[in-house]
């Protein structure tokens, strides 16, 4: 018997040998490893392997004795870019990699790299994102779309024009993805379930028109698409003495190109899909949806006032606000230097304290004070609204600015500028812009336009400085060219959305997109040499772009 009433102690002899225990442990580890490996897609695995190979190879090549960190910067930047392209990790996490890699590689300090992640461009987008959140919350964009479509009748080409007009206007200020998603169901409602060949042709044309108009509208404003904001931010970081690229200036430059691309899209799609259609289109569904929204609410009126307020601030600020809020580099006891004009009279340099980020956030702040009719006791925007801001996109901006700074600090911009100087000097300015636009346009069909812009814009600005070419002449075609992605479903989110409906085939998008890509290359080249002069005389090399002696 066992002591203290405990049950008898039994000794069990294990028949498992130590070698079998080791084999079992190894098997468990292999199973965990295989399970972990299985979580990565084939594309992600390719991205990891390719990025490591590129990192090692480029890191081992000495590009310049004068700038020993140039090859390190290029290797790290290509590593990050490959992870963006192959989506090895979420965009936000990949965008944080410069804070990790650049300090470890001894290129820039962690403090300096992190400081590049927020500037006026991010706050311009934060304010715009909040206004867009309010638009979607009160369904103002849906009412606008339904109203336009309900007024244009039921002729195919007129409906196409109306849908594209809505997509174009909304994507100038809101996400082109959400704009496309909003309009896709409207097309289905117009066809009303009809399955004839003409009905299918109309659906294809309408869906392609929406996607192309959304892409075109994004060209027009700084907040319309990410490459525009990246260019403004990188330009400001690279040339701090340059005049700010304002919302109004960018719109003056790019709006004509955006309109030309939208009109070209309407002509191409209309010619390919909207001719000789025999189809009974119905706008009954549209009218029913419009009726379901009810009368225009107080929230929508408040929102319209806030949007007009923001646009007014953008347009008035450069001449009506910035010259009066800032400081002069010279303090004169004999005369006032409280504004830009008096400051310049005494030979000083005026530094404005106000930028488009200030104006954007000011307009968004108003919506946090206005009471909501729909949600009693709350404001139109609340703390919950911040959960809908695309912070991953803001981090992506920051990564682009951090990479641009690393290019400058390491001397990589100068090294690349020297490599491309012969190419740029031998070609005429027109041929250079045309070539850059062509290469970027077709390259971005297969890669993220944001990743493309983040890498190529700093490179082109470095080439401009080295060759003493106007930086706008090389930077603008990269920026606009990165948004000329009309051919492939993966090229832009609007293309992906309409392709995912199953109504548009790969061949449909390729045929129309190829024509528009080539039209876009001509339009962008012409735009750079015409409205591009709104920034500066493109024939001159500006003093702010000269390299430090």
Structural class: mainly alpha
What radius of gyration results from the CA coordinates? 28 Å
Helix count equals 23
State the low-pLDDT regions, or none: 1-7, 9-14
**How is the main sheet built?**
2 strands, antiparallel
Shape: globular
Mean pLDDT: 84
- What distance separates the N and C termini? 96 Å
Give the SSE order as H and E letters. HHHHHHHHHHHHHHEHEHHHHHHHH
DSSP E strands, number = 2
Strand content: under 5%
Helical content stands at 55-70%
- Strand adjacency order, main sheet: 1-2
Question: How would you summarize what this structure contains?
Answer:
With 549 residues, the chain is an all-alpha fold. The protein has helices at 18-38, 42-60, 70-86, 91-104, 110-115, 120-138, 140-151, 156-173, 176-191, 197-218, 226-238, 247-273, 284-293, 298-321, 340-345, 356-366, 391-410, 412-426, 429-443, 449-467, 471-481, 493-499, 506-529; strands spanning 326-328, 350-352. Helix 8 packs parallel to helix 10 (197-218) and helix 18 (412-426) packs across helix 20.
Describe, in plain words, how this protein is organized in 3D:
- This protein is an all-alpha fold.
- The protein has 23 helices and two strands.
- It has a two-stranded antiparallel sheet.
- Helix 8 packs antiparallel against helix 9 (176-191) and helix 11 packs parallel to helix 17.
- The chain is globular.
């Amino acid at each position: 018997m066992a002591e203290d009433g405990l049950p008898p102690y039994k000794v069990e002899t294990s028949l498992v040998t130590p070698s079998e225990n080791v084999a079992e442990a190894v098997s468990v580890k292999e199973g965990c490893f295989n399970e972990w490996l299985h979580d990565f897609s084939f594309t992600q695995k390719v991205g990891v392997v390719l990025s490591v190979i590129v990192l090692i190879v480029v890191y081992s090549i000495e590009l310049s004795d004068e700038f020993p960190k140039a090859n390190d910067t290029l290797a790290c930047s290509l590593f990050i870019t490959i992870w963006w392209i192959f989506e090895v990790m979420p965009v936000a996490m990949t965008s944080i990699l410069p804070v990790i890699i650049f300090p470890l590689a001894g290129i820039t300090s962690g403090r300096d790299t992190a400081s590049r992640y927020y500037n006026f461009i991010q706050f311009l987008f934060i304010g715009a994102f909040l206004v867009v959140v309010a638009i979607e919350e009160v369904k103002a964009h849906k009412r606008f779309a339904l109203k336009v479509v309900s007024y244009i009748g039921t002729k195919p080409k007129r409906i196409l024009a109306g849908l594209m007009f809505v997509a174009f206007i909304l994507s100038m200020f809101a996400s082109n993805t959400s704009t496309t998603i909003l309009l896709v169901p409207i097309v289905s409602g117009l066809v009303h379930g009809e399955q004839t060949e003409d009905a299918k042709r109309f659906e294809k044309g309408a869906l392609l028109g929406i996607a192309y108009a959304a892409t075109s509208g994004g060209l027009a404003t700084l907040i319309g698409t990410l490459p525009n904001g990246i260019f403004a931010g990188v330009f400001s970081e690279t040339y701090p003495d340059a005049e700010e690229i304002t919302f109004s200036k960018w719109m003056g430059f790019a709006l004509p190109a955006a309109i030309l691309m939208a009109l070209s899209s309407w002509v191409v799609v209309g010619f390919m899909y909207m001719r000789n259609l025999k189809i009974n289109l119905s706008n009954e569904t549209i009218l029913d949806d419009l009726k379901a929204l009810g009368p225009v609410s107080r929230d929508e009126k408040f929102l319209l006032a806030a949007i007009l307020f923001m646009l007014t601030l953008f347009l008035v600020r450069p001449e009506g606000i910035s010259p009066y809020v800032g400081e002069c580099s010279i303090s004169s006891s004999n005369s006032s230097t409280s504004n830009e004009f008096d400051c310049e009279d005494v030979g000083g340099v005026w530094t404005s304290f106000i930028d488009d980020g200030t104006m954007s956030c000011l307009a968004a702040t108003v919506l946090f004070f206005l009471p909501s009719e729909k949600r009693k006791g709350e404001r139109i925007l609340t703390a919950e609204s911040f959960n809908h801001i695309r912070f991953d996109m803001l981090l992506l901006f920051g990564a682009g600015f951090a990479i641009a700074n690393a290019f400058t600090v390491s001397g990589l911009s100068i090294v690349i500028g020297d490599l491309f100087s012969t190419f740029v000097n031998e070609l005429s300015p027109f041929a250079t812009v045309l070539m850059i636009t062509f290469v970027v346009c077709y390259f971005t069909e297969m890669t993220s336009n944001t990743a493309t812009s983040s890498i190529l814009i700093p490179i082109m600005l470095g080439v401009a400085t080295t060759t003493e070419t106007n930086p706008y002449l090389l930077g603008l075609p990269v920026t606009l060219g990165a948004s000329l992605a009309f051919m492939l479903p993966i090229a832009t989110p609007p293309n992906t959305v309409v392709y995912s409906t199953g109504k548009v085939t790969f061949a449909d998008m390729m045929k129309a997109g190829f024509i528009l890509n080539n039209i876009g290359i001509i339009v962008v080249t012409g735009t750079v040499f015409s409205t591009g002069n709104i920034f500066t005389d493109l024939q001159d090399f500006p003093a702010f772009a000269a390299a430090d002696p």
